[in-house]
Amino acid sequence: MTARSQSFACAGEVHPFAFPGATEHYPPDRPVRVEHIRLEVELDFEEKALAGTCTTRVRANREIRTVSFDAVELEVRQVKVDGKVAEFANTGEKLHVTLPSQLRVGAAAEVAVRYGCHPTRGLYFWGPDAGYPDRPVQAWTQGEDEDARAWFPCLDAPAQKATSEMIATFPARMKGISNGALLSDKQKGSKRTVHYRLDVPHAPYLVTLVVGEFEEAFDKAGDTTLRYLFPPGRKQDAMRCVEATPKMLGYFEQLTGEKYPFGSYTQVFVTEFIFGGMENTSATTLTDTVLHDARAHLDYSAEPLVAHELAHQWFGDLITCRDWPHAWLNEGFATYCEVLWKESAHGTDEADQHRREELDAYLQEARERYARPIVARKYHLPIDLFDRHLYQKAALVLHDLRKRLGDSLFERALRHYVKKYRGGAVESVDLARAVEEATGHNIDRFMDHYVFSPGHPQLKVELRYEAEERRVRLKVKQVQKTEGAEAAPIYHLFLPVRLVVQGRAREESLEVADQEHVFYLPVAKDPSQVLLDPRREVFGTLEVDKPIEYWLEELRRAPEARARTEAALALGKNASAPAVDGLRTGLSKDRFWAVQAACAKALGVVRTPRARQALLENAAVKHPKARRAVMAALGELKRDADVAAVLRRVSEKGDPSYFVEGEAARSLGKVRVEGALPVLKKVVRRGSFMEVVAVGAVDGMAESLEPEAFAIVEPLTAYGQPAFLRRAAVVALAKLAEPAQKKREALECLRELLRDPQFPVQMAVFPAAQELGDVRIIPALEVAMFRDGRAQRAARETIRALREDESRGKAISALREEVDRLKEETRGIKERMEGMDAGRKQRPQFRSHRA
């Protein structure tokens, strides 16, 4: 599953991951083992209902008389066991079936449940309405984490892997997709019935059904048939997304040493999907919002999403986490496979940049929300775990492990892990044992530090050349918090160093195992470069204090783009003329776009006249991603008429890249010059991929803080507007409420949107509520019936943040009152003292005389 687009960043101080009331979760007992699931269902699109029979074959692990299924809000009409009517009790959460007789150990029974439902989770019906008259008629399922139980009765645990069968009936004009091979596709009158079967056991959350009007295309990857389904008329856009699939599949077969295990592979693009994608076994579901035209393809690719979900067919589907705390074995591997594919297909520099973006995402969560162990058992709902620790941190930890083992041993360990646990359910210790068996390396300490402990290494390095001793002095400190409930360990790691002396490079490896250590590296003369971890492969943060000359030479000559990027960002903290000149050269001439982008960002931080000129000179830099970074950096130059003219020109006349155009509009609002609002008002009506141009204009209006912008933005929150635009407008409304003196109207809008049928819009309310900072929304957040666990957690975080802001505000107010009171008391005392002094001056003076 790709869920990162839904990550919710909560502003403010870091808190514990688990909220009060959270409990520790462990895998359920397994009195029976599920062997096969057969679903026979009919979809009613008018009623948004499902009816059918689910037959489950179970085999007893111990003597039992009752089998209990997870079944949420299902109307159970009849239960049969081995063809005979059986007694049952339905609680609305569980279906308890009484077997006709005791089931002996090793004996099997078939439990057939006839039922119906109007699902609000698990299975979603979509169609046109007044707001979106062109929305297609579709139904699709989404079972992860524990939503399969909301559309069919099942033992809804990842370890309960079984073969499956789907017999689905729906309107004849539609196509139906499910797991495995299509055995039959029959039409009778106005109805169509498809029959799919998958003979490889898989978890219940991976059972899928997608029904809708699709066009389709086919391809081959070795012996595997590839099937692509997409909205009518979008074939070219779909193929831009999936065209690399055959090569990807071959690459992952080679990487894992395991042929694709499920016969055929389908990818289907659906409307209103609540994640980026979902790796249903043999049949991945993808959001149709990633379908893009040639213009968007200049600087956007769906390859990371496609690679992620395809990699899951091995990591998550073939090998499945035993329970959700170990879900990083699904998501961490799939996320890291994005990097591995990018390295294979597009080179080391692109892969290193992708890792950098993953690190930035994880660090934001660790800095603004919480730091938790990757494996955590205490939570409210399993979906709480699907965060940037489970995805990005886990992927970065795997890369760190690869670096420690070396490429050859890492690949050997990976193949052994896949071979050993093929078809099974695993925990983190299984990976550790597989690595040890394949390579001889015991990684228990590594797992304890990086997987079972919160936090990450935070290294500060002071680097100096000591000429008299002819050596480089490196003082390395681990500065992460090592005490308290959320403490990180003192890490044991190896920090690569490259010294370039007289044109020759020398590699060193510093073993860091203490909180502070000083290393001395002998050199013949002053090095021209001293690079620490040039590709930033050691997981964590690295802050290096070294002379500017080293940074400049690194930006000019380091072979690794990641090293040049880090040098550019470091130079952004130095406003000297040499630093700015180095950044200017890097922006205009570096061969990799991410280095150019880093130079632009650094110049935007410096903001001197020299830096400003460098940005203006490179406003038309060739690569669209670098050009976008220049537009963003120009937004840091407030109230600059020349800068505004450049941004206005790009906003009005456009750019070959949607993203550059949107960024220019965003920055035009940020510079806060007169006349920007009419331009942004026109731009907001411009259509684009994911509405990135209009979203940039809305963000720009919010940044402008112009009171008149409120009236422009408010209608864009309405149901019927494009979803991406609505999300941006919701947050913009909150930012504009105070300058427009419209906090009451904004508050009422946010309250209404908490019930919005579009999940992404619902999720936008939480950051907007924090931006608004009005505690009056808390009652609405407390009573809202959020069906999605992500919204439930986001609501808790928002309520906590608002209350803390209120408490801080009250504390500041009380402090001000106390200061005012003390001032009054001081003034009173001063007045009395002045009165006493005046009285003394006016009082007659008596002298005593001695006779």
Tally of strands? 31
Termini separation (Å)?
Answer: 109 Å
Mean pLDDT: 95
The number of helical elements comes to 25
Strand content: 15-25%
Give your account of this protein's structure.
Helix 10 (548-557) runs antiparallel to helix 11 (561-571). The strands form 8 sheets. An 8-stranded mixed β-sheet has the order 6-5-9-3-2-12-15-14, with no helix packed on it. A 5-stranded mixed β-sheet has the order 17-18-19-21-20, with helices on one face. A 4-stranded antiparallel β-sheet has the order 10-11-16-13, with no helix packed on it. Mean pLDDT is 95; it is low at 840-851. The protein has 25 helices and 31 strands. The protein starts with 22 loop residues before the first strand and ends in a 9-residue tail after the last helix. It is of the alpha+beta class. Helices cover 40% and strands 23% of the residues. Strand 7 and strand 8 form a beta hairpin.
